[in-house]
Records
---
Amino acid sequence: MRAVILAGGEGTRLRPLTSNQPKPMMPLANRPMMEHVVRLLANHGFDDIVVTVAFLANQIRDYFGDGSDFGVRMRYATEETPLGTAGSVLNAAEELDDTFLVISGDVLTDIDLSAIVKAHHDAGALASIALKRVENPLEFAIVITRPDGTIERFLEKPSWGEVFSDTANTGIYVLEPGVFDYIHPGEVVDFAGDVFPAILEKKLPLIGTVVDGYWEDVGTLEAYLRAHQDVLDRRVHVDIEGFRIGEGIWLGEGADVDPTARIEGPVVIGDNCRIEPGAHLREYTVLGTDVVVKADAFVERSVCHDHVYVGPSARLRGCVIGRSTDLRANARIEEGVVVGDECFVG
């Protein structure tokens, strides 16, 4: 089966981390977010993937290439101007002549995609939406379904007085090529706001399938840190690179950890990292490739991207550090702080 990955967004809410890289390329446990999506698709037999790209598209193309390294075939459809979720899929329509799945390149999920496709075919639907029960419906687009699974209506980010359902739209859709009749070329068109309401109006079969499994829209910096914690707690089934040494400690190739360094898992240490004497890494720390943690430095609940330098006796807590940033001796980076790429903190 074919799948479309939407990878054209700029990820403005994740700036400064997305200033120099597209959001789907943001590392999550040292793999780009979109790589986790590609691996999930491959596991469910989606071996023919079209990727819609726009912002810094070459970074995505260079990393994934033709998809052969991931066991899939990948092609790219480029948006010159933003066209919305449906408009960008229409851009790839000539590749999509049979049932296909649409998924965002910047979600973290392990839901059963095969089950959604089966429910779609069983219902003979034109379009199916994967729905997930959420604790706080106010943050999401809520979908109200009838007992037979057909969709009654949509509510975009409702107020408490409007909440009649806790099933959120995950942005994962199974569609027939007939949906292209409801997408006007060259216009900004969204599935949730434009296409699905039009299908509802025509009383065509539109169903919602409530799915189990993990799903997180990694749209904010808080969600980014939370997603890392969920990966390390194994609340979501994704591969973590490295050798597992001890309980919840993953060590990359060529990493050098001094015997006097203290490591309390779960922790991921990337390839070619160097952890010096007396350094202390505590739970939910993720270090990218070539990260240096100098003597007596302390890192807890923090994510450091590739080539970060953490100076002697520096202290990092609950923060995210961008690529090639240099934190010198005794620097303190506290809760909720995000430092962009190539910064220097004296």
---
Amino acid sequence: MAVRFSNVELAPFWGATIRLAASALLFWLILFLWQIALPQKRDTLVLLVTGFFTVGISFGLYYFGFVRLQASLGSVIVALGPLMTFFLAVLHGLESFRWQSLVGGVIALAGISIAARAQLGADIPMLSLVALMTGSAISAEGNVILKTYSPKSDPVATNALTLTTGVLFLALTSFLLGEPHKVPTLPATWIAITYTILPGTVLMFHLYLWILLRWSASATAYVVMLFPIVATTVAVVLMGERITRSFILGGALVLTGVWIGALMKR
């Protein structure tokens, strides 16, 4: 929801740059004040590369997708994350293939189709839809890499490194695309940016990595299942988005597919 408000005044990649740059500065400040050590050289390199590609690209695609897609529908698409994480873990050799995951994937895609048509009708911005799905997949890949190659890094150091190189990608892309680089003027934009920086990035990223270091990747993915519930409720209250029975059915199918494919036991 905050991204949607930010996109009203700011170009998508520039808005994402502002958010991640401020968040990275706060993480570096916390790191120096608490005297937190950086991880070993190999882990540091992995985190820097991961941040540039997975964090930078995924955030850019999220912001781009939310220019035209409603928050309620976008959050349902982002909820595919656990299912994508599982399939990527299979490709990495961390998990074994399960037929129930394929069934769950088919159910989830059917739910996306129903939810998209319910919210957007026949005029579906396919580029925005693909951008969000791709961003979710890239973010899932980043989670697999973090879980595999940097299991002992402090969450503050991890976020400081990944967000810093993610900002480099976003800023570079913003300038290459010729986006306007304006300072926000609307109060709603400042409120949205403040929210995305403090609770939406610094607090959320820290807590998510803290959990990821202590739980399995599958268990951590449970939190994503709450995204559509929260986002849809807030979208109705703050932006007056229309929620139909068909959208609820589609969203329920997506969550069911994710549950069957990624979270349910054999």
---
Amino acid sequence: MTPASRSPEARADEAAGLALAIDLSVVGAIIVNLSEVRPATFLGKGKVEELAQRIKEEEIALCVVDCALSPVQQRNLEKAFACKVIDRTGLILEIFGRRARTREGALQVELAHLDYQKSRLVRSWTHLERQRGGFGFLGGPGETQIETDRRLLQERIIRIKVELEAVKKTRALHRASRKEVPYPIVALVGYTNAGKSTLFNKLTKADVLAADMLFATLDPTLRLLELPHGAKAILSDTVGFISDLPTMLIQAFRATLEEVRAADVILHVRDIAHVDSGAQGEDVIGILNELGVEAGAAKMIEVWNKADLLPPGGAPEIKRGANAPILVSAVTGQGLDTLIAAIETRLAHGRPTISLKLAATDGAGLAWLYENAEILSRKDAKDGAITLKLRVAPEMEARVRKRFAV
């Protein structure tokens, strides 16, 4: 597959969005065309001098370079610009540091941050004396030089990995207990700001933060999803992906994304109104592949969100078929009935159907079936007997057949 092109302007807009996500004031964005990358400063000498002059004149306190800088390049640019310089990785880590709310999320981000800091020990390490969110790339109280002690850093990394392993075991126990219910898992994935949380809220009537900003959701959220024929599923909202996601963040968030790995159905939510929707979709698939998530056609439903933002007649053509994308608007509710029906159909694959007859007096049995199976059809006879056609999870089939002597 040929990678979808991403325009420099769209990349610049995304970088500005990342900066705005942590309340920075963006005074300008400059697109620099490079013929080659300079080992010392990444940018050429003339461009460095030009930018240094502008930074001085406009009294700019922070420069964000939307790429990965080596520690040497970062230090040299700071000297040349006489201001703080952070790269794309540092900016994303700063956002994650401020947004993580759960203990697990905070540990995952700190682990990623420490891996990043290994080669940048001259940088601040303010989480040891946390007085605010974030991880101190942008300065702030509590800065010390104790980060020069490489042994302390490595010991902290080891402790965090032990704690995260315990979190992973706890999640595994939770999944095992859910299997006894059993509810299938439907996981939402997608590029950051694709509208996953808005869709999550609409489908589950929840109130998860859904803001028009990058990385509004970091910590996973689970809610019950009611399906048309009475079945239930667990819907999981996860962290959004982004192009050039730092490798250490992919590794650190493996525990969080276990819900995606264990999912029965994956909803790949795309902002179909975005100019870079195609490239964003490919980035998500690439990260899923890197995480070892099986995201084949049998498991994934592509959801084209934000139909309400398309111009009149601007909806892209959708090819018909079992795996056709579903056009929705999480804001207006357009297409959500079709999406829920598609989820139910996909979950039904491999689930046996059973026909049985209940006596009029077996009210307890009827209530149990409504709770533990999908009732596809029901016929009530004049004598009160009830004929049901139902669908059950594979692991429940033997239990149903034994209880009702089918």
